[in-house]
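Input/output pair, single chain:
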Amino acid sequence: MDTLFEQPETPMRLSEIHVTKLFGVFDHDIQLRTGDRITIIHGPNGYGKTAILQMVQALLANQTSVFRRVPFETFRVRFDSGAQLEVTKRHKKNGTKEDSYVALHYQLRHNDKRFDHSIEFGARGRLPFSLDFVDRHIDDLERVGPEHWLHIPSGRRLDVDDVIDLYGEFLPGPLRRESRRLPEWLIQLPKKFDVRIIEAQRLMSVPDRRRNHRPDGVYGFEPAVASYSRDLSSKIQQKTAQYGTVSQQLDSTFPTRVLQTKVSSHTTIVALTEKLQELEQKRQRVIDAGLLAKKSYPTPIVDPQGPVDESTKGILSLYAEDVESKLSVFDEIADRVELFKELVNKRFRYKRIDVERDHGFVLSSLTGGSLFPIDLSSGEQHELVLLYELLFRTKQNALVLIDEPELSLHVAWQVEFLRDLERIIKLSGFDVILATHSPQIINNRWELTVELLGE
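Output:
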């Protein structure tokens, strides 16, 4: 079918956002700064900055709760391919609350083709199944409230109707009606776009354990800095395990490959010495990042002026290739850990952060005393959460939506935010739309801004 998704290998990017009658009042046209990969939305309170971020995420992630909750008429996005996706909201009342409904109409236009789909939401009566049914039978969901779940693969928060939209065919009773089944072109949206929202309320997260509600009916949350510390430890341990697997495979075949190796004529002892020194520096960098134990064996040092026969040169060349293959396992995460530590330690004047495989974040005061992540101030926790989200939880070509990055941050930290963000984007390659009230966040980068006007 000729749709938006003919070339899944080609990343698609948003270029425009349009909304009419937001909150019954505002019409906003937002041209994204795609060349810079950062668009800053600013304007007075109540003009819809947060709502627009939530609606972008909802549209690209197939969630309907925001569209049902927020008053608006049309919400439309345009992609760099020229495709256009729009959702229109309609209300109908037949005299009684039970006969009222909300209809969302989706329309995709692409390559002179048009695809339409409508979803109706009537006044919800008694559900034909217990909500515990969702907990027992849908493994992708983690209960975080009486009628809310965390969608584990994406990190999105879902309500009952979102669950019905995504998993209606697995639920009992009349929920399997045709009107709630999405067409393929809508189902493919979350697979095409990795959209991530970093909300203003970002200091608490759901613990990484299943069925986290307690017998008293209260749902468990914990400081995000604590869960992110464990998450980083888990990522490092995964890379360490991969390093061990690669090392074992290469070491077990090394004798056989030594006997088969032929040294290229252009390999000189000087070039080989430089390569071994470069690998030693790389190994030390991985150790300093907290990714590899300090007791790991150093690379051998060769005297470039000393006698080295062809056989020895062949063995050392093969050894260098193996070391490079082993250490390359850490390339991506080492770059991120280094930048993470640099940016955090530039902010924390009286504290220091390091990274260890078994503990994730390791914090200490200037006097040498150990600190827990939850000992950080509100501003320090906000900074840590933002940087971690951007460096370790955001994929290449993702669209990241950041609501009020200035929260709890000192003015000097706000001034540095865009420069740091640009460095992270250069490393990871994603697009950002952020909403802010802070002129310090903008910091004379007005060419990146779009002002929401009350028109």
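The chain has three domains: 14-193+200-222, 229-331, 333-441. The chain has 13 helices and 19 strands.
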